[in-house]
Amino acid sequence: MADSDPVGVILVTAGTRGDRMLFRYPYETEENREIFSKLTGRNPYAVKIAEDLQAVNRRRKTSSIRNGVLVGFSNPILANLLALRSELCGRRFDVKIDDVRFVGFPIMLQADSDKQTKGPSILSFNIVFVLKANVSPSVVSCYQDLAKQLTVAIRHEETRCHYLTAQTKIILSIHDEVAAMPEDSCDSPFKLILEKSQLAKDLKYVYDSLCDTGVVLLHTNRWVEINFCLPHKIYGSISARGAKIEPEAVQRCLASLRPYHAMLLLVDENSLLDSLPVDCTPTLPKLVQAASPLKSLETLALDADLSLSQVFQIVSHLVYWAKATIIFPLCESNVYMLSPHAYTHVNSPQVESFVDHFPGMSLPAVLSEFSLPTPLGQHRDVLGLPQQQTQKVQMVIWMLQRRFLIQLHQYIHLVPSVEGVADSGVDDAFASGLSADKSHLGSSVEENSVLRRTTSSSDIASVNSDESPVPAMTNNLAKSPSLEFGTNGALLSDESGSDWRAREAVLCHLNKAEKDSILRVPAAKNPEDLKLFLRLRPYFNGKHHLEEIMYYENVRRSQLLTLLDKFRGVLITCSHQDPATAFYVKT
To answer: Measured between alpha carbons, how far is 335 from 413 in angstroms, rounded to an integer?
Structure first.
């Protein structure tokens, strides 16, 4: 039993005839009741003065959860504890007692004068989920949201067709029948309630779905639709070695979503389309049908004829429900390596699944090719058939879906040195890394028949930027006069004092150490290189990778790598994952 799984679900009501505990599942069996009675050591012949279960548990140090079932709480205690008055209705409900926690969302029913004159009526009701006391606050919040969905749906049906009143009559009649029978002549009343009450069956289905998959798809009274997912459960089943993933981690990664990212479906497209409700927005199936791991979200928005904000909302929804994940569009410059948290056992079920998808291939052999960070272009066989290249791409997609591979991006840090250029050891290591990247530029994505990505507006802008002066998108560097330097690296004036001050304004936002270090680099004597470097300098803080810089500044990879090579004396690079794709990694 996972920590996020519910211990039980309870339905209570408060009305003109008092508080009633109508249904609970799973219900306490005679076996659990006898075990709890032995543990607490109660004397059956003692006079019962007051039933203080909390004090008994604290004294005996016994758990209220036995075999996954809540024990020790009688029906009257649960009714008095969970049926709330009007002052507390319409709010989130959370009560902790020893090692269990009760969460819900009580709600008031609308006053009905006709029904009040005919007899007893229900004033409020509450659907409560029983959880372990040590669950995280995000789990509590998710269950409160589900309880709110259920209570609001039931209130809607009560207003429409008196659904709750009819179900309550069925449940109370069974309680009365069982109470009139001898104790040894009948089963638990909750077992009989499950056979006759549709509301009880729905609550049992909700409990079973939460324990099995974490996804609840239900129509209350076959009318009001309930859609809910528990991220802790669904991501725990697909994450790296059962890593615990909080919804906050998913939200932080979705906040890092950018137009240059791509969406990769984790489920079959046809099964996803079939699972969509009938009244879902038509933009969702349109986007799913147009999605491709080779398309950026910006390109996907153009192909699906949707706004970028709509694409972001739908993609975020699919990622939250673990139907999709975020990747960078597949291209030859992408650097992949084996995930350190991947389950690579030779007898794992994934090995058989891989053989089913790609007959004649071996998953351990393919994974061994990604033991070291390598650009995807190096895995392409230039003499291979197009079918083999297509299969290679499909294998990479399959491994990305199963979290076997992670993509590494290059991040740049500006490290100024007052003494000048850094030592040659750092320069050689940096230059070797850049040369490895530039060695794959001769075979571009457009030349590859398999990894062909749709041309976007950013690509067109990059082409234009190579044919014309670089536009000043973040400052006025392009509008400044040409820069000239003396032998000591100081700026020289070629016209007037105002021009000299304008040139000095280019470097005024740098501190002295940065200014001196940059100006001592030989490439800084080239005005165009210095302009471009200073324009990109805000990205050299280790928070922006090369692909992001290329997208937002409309520069080509070759142009960017050449610039970094020229200024390698004041730059250091490191490689790690993009935060938008790393939420499933165990930390």
So the answer is: 19
pLDDT digits (tens, 9 = 90+) for 242-265: 567 778 888 888 888 999 999 999
**Which helix (H) or strand (E) segment is 10 a member of?**
strand 8-15
The whole-number pLDDT of residue 424 equals: 41
Distance from C-alpha of 382 to C-alpha of 389, rounded to nearest angstrom:
9
Question: What does the mean pLDDT of the chain come to?
Answer: 79
Cα–Cα distance between 520 and 422 in angstroms, integer?
11
- Residue 47 Cα to chain centre, angstroms: 55
Give the position of tokens 């794959």.
Answer: 440
Q: Which residue has the tokens 């789990």?
A: 139
Q: What is the pLDDT of residues 536-554, one digit of tens each?
A: 999 999 999 999 999 999 9
d(Cα 13, Cα 132) in Å, to the nearest integer?
23
In Å, how far from its chain's centre is CA 333?
26
Global confidence as pTM: 0.77
For the segment 17-45, the average pLDDT, to the nearest whole number, is: 64
Helix/strand/coil percentages in the chain, nearest 5: 50, 15, 35
Q: Tell me the three-class secondary structure of 130-161, residue by residue.
A: EEECCCCHHHHHHHHHHHHHHHHHHHHHHHHH
- Cα 34 to Cα 10, 31, 181, 570, distances in angstroms: 22, 5, 21, 75
Instruction: Tell me the CA distances in angstroms from 299 to 227, 283, 308, 405, 586, one per residue in order.
Output: 30, 15, 9, 24, 31
